[in-house]
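Work Package 3 committed the consortium to producing structural models of liganded targets before the mid-term review. Because experimental data for this complex are still outstanding, the team generated a predictive model from sequence and the ligand definition alone, so that downstream docking and mutagenesis planning could proceed in parallel. The input record is reproduced below exactly as it was submitted to the modelling pipeline, together with the SMILES string for acetyl coenzyme *A.
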Amino acid sequence: MRTIEIFDTTLRDGEQSPGVNISTNEKVEIALQLEKLGVNRIEAGFAAASPGDQKSVAEVAKRVKNATVVSLARAVKDDMDKAYEALRNAQNASLHVFLATSPIHRQFKLNMSKEEVLARAVEAVTYAKKYFTEVQFSAEDAARTEIDFLAEVVEAVIKAGATTVNIPDTVGYMTPYQYGNIFRELKKRVPSTDLIRLSCHCHDDLGMAVANSLAAVEGGATQVEGTINGIGERAGNAALEEVALALETRKDYYQATTKLNLKEIARTSQLVSRLTGMIVPGNKAVVGANAFAHESGIHQDGVLKEVTTYEIIRPESVGFKSNKLVLGKHSGRHAFKEKLVDLGYHLEQEEVNVAFAAFKVLCDKKKEITDDDILALVDSKMVRGPEAFQLESVQLAYGNISVPTASVRLVRADGSVCEEAACGNGSVDSIYKAIDRATGEEVSLVDYKILSVTHGQDALGEVFVRLQQGDLIVTGRGVSTDVLEASAIAYVRAVNKIMERRGEPTPVSATI
Ligand SMILES: CC(=O)SCCNC(=O)CCNC(=O)[C@H](O)C(C)(C)COP(=O)(O)OP(=O)(O)OC[C@H]1O[C@@H](n2cnc3c(N)ncnc32)[C@H](O)[C@@H]1OP(=O)(O)O
Ligand SMILES: CC(C)C(=O)C(=O)O
Ligand SMILES: [Mg+2]
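The resulting structure, written out as tokens with the ligand in place, is given here.
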């Protein structure tokens, strides 16, 4: 079994994602998490890009102890000097110097001949070796370079002291078969590649970055470069979590694995998403919210009977809690009952049937049913004492230069109606004052949270309130497509709970 080393460039190529700018503190935070994840190398930035990037590389270099910290540099002495300055305090440091080798880049970007590129690459590696034991050379746009010339460059930079040679597919142009063959060909033509790390670096322009990286491993690459969540320039880089899981899950085929602590993947992904603002799509492999979710009844039934029927990765193995049964209108009783057990309910079959029927009605109103929806549903179907008040309507007059005024209509347990209006400091305040008048209860609002607001046409606002009356503290929750309505529902439910705790009779059934 071969061990493939992981070179993480989330903080350099990942930061090249349009709109992403990671501060020094954030880079350190991500780097420390990458260290926990167990990556071999962390490319912390491009020191010559700006004083801020130089500082970030330096901070990461100071803090990270168990991974090699890398800075990118052009084949330019001043770039390499800045990288050296930044990496001075690293426990383990490496310089990553690059120069494009492809005809397109030579002609249009660098305006250099093959001979000039070859000489400059050797000169750069030789210069870097004065400072660093570990030097990586990248032949930018290697995948579109003539194979004869590429082999010549690879051989020359190894001779000059490069300890890693990277063969990037800079523009994501390769097919897996072609890319794997470049590695096979280089291994054949340049025997000294056996003495160094041979690295792959893929971009996702055609959606093949991960497949190409795996093909490179098959072709002889010993290091894979990429980013967490696949962020990066244009369509991004190879997603490291996907590469690692493919190797782990199919080690029978690849006969290779990484040393990553896979249980840190979920946490790393979430941190990178939070600090870069790059949201992970729900259907993203390995780390998407739906990656371990089973929505349809037949799949759910299969997973409950034997998890491997529809699951090839255990969510716990990458740090997620457990497989998630998403309940929706296609779900069946098996999954619903399982969810109830999960949430701590142990109901009789008859009670399950009643709750299941109510659940199906709710499914027609809402695309995805959350655990909280199930809790609300089951709680309301198992009402010990019915609720004292139900919100029938809420209306609001709001203007940015007028005082908000709310009127509410509540139905009491005996069926009678109470209607009240009130002004307040804001919309929510006016609604709550009107409810206070209608219920006649004196309560204080001690906490108010809008916990989640989904997107799209059935966007839901979820409001939690905490009310206090004397020693009693209760919570109430409301969900609605309108946050003000959700606020009102949450408040009324909390008031009902207070009355219930005081033991007052409440002869009206709850509905959902
Ligand atoms: C495939 C990749 O991801 S490569 C990394 C890409 N990342 C970045 O570019 C982010 C950081 N970059 C920067 O901050 C800036 O581009 C800097 C500071 C490096 C350079 O800025 P400037 O001096 O203003 O140059 P500018 O970016 O406009 O142009 C790049 C120059 O470097 C040259 N160049 C490009 N690659 C290399 C290289 N590997 N080695 C030497 N020179 C190179 C270009 O030919 C061009 O030279 P020219 O000015 O003689 O035409
Ligand atoms: C600097 C190099 C390695 C790069 O990012 C690329 O070629 O995509
Ligand atoms: Mg790149």
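Reviewers should note the following from the model. The domain at 2-276 is CATH 3.20.20.70 (TIM Barrel). These observations will guide the Year 2 experiments.
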